[in-house]
Structure formats: structure tokens, C-alpha cells
Amino acid sequence: MRFYPLDKLINLHDGYTRQFKIDNLQLLLIQRDSERYLIEAQCPHRAHPLDAATIDKGVIQCALHQYRFSIADGRLLHATEEPCRGLRTFDLVYERNEIGVMLEER
């Protein structure tokens, strides 16, 4: 496993959303209500980017087909077409003044 830094803690604030690419993995770092989340950055339904999704009360809604997922655990909450898997979520790691993720080395 390897630590991949994403951002400095000083840059995070409520309303923060930023996309990161690590190898072929697209990740979305989110902070809402003082809680931080790291999820995959594409909707599992049709791979639409989630950086333009709406986020409200712990729910992210894809702009393309309005699928809704929990940002805390990735659960699919609402499907407008065929059901799909939930979002992948990742544990955040704090190292000194940075936030990041531990991933298998490629």
C-alpha cells in the first residue's frame, strides 16, 4: 500500500469538492458539514462525471439520470432506470498537514 496525498488540510472547507486522478482511478474529495468523504468520481450507472453533481444532506445526485447515492457509504438510494452498483468509497488518511488515500501500488 502507498499513501497518495490529495490536498493540504488548510485548503479544505465546507463546500469543497475536487477531483483527483491516480493512475486510472478518478476520485472525488468532498467536505460537507465538517465531514470529509472520498468517492469514485463517476456514476456507476453510465460513468457520467460526478464533479457537477448536486450534493445535499449526505446525498450526491448524478446530473445525467438523477441517480442518488449516499456519500458516506456509497449506497444506491434511488435509481431512475435500471439499478446499478453503489459508489466505491475510500478511507481517508491524514498524514501531517495533508489528507490522502492508501492504495495498492501499481
Automatic annotation (TrEMBL):
Keyword check for Iron: yes
Gene3D superfamilies registered for this protein in UniProt: Rieske [2Fe-2S] iron-sulphur domain
Residue ranges of every copy of the Rieske domain listed in the record: 3-101
Species of provenance: Parahaliea mediterranea
PROSITE patterns listed in its UniProt record: RIESKE (PS51296)
GO molecular function: 2 iron, 2 sulfur cluster binding; metal ion binding
Keywords tagged on the record: 2Fe-2S, Iron, Iron-sulfur, Metal-binding
One matching Pfam family: Rieske
InterPro entries assigned to the protein according to its UniProt record, in alphabetical order: Rieske_2Fe-2S, Rieske_2Fe-2S_sf
Claim: Ribonucleoprotein is one of the keywords in the record: no
CDD domains listed in its UniProt record: Rieske (cd03467)
Protein name: Rieske (2Fe-2S) protein
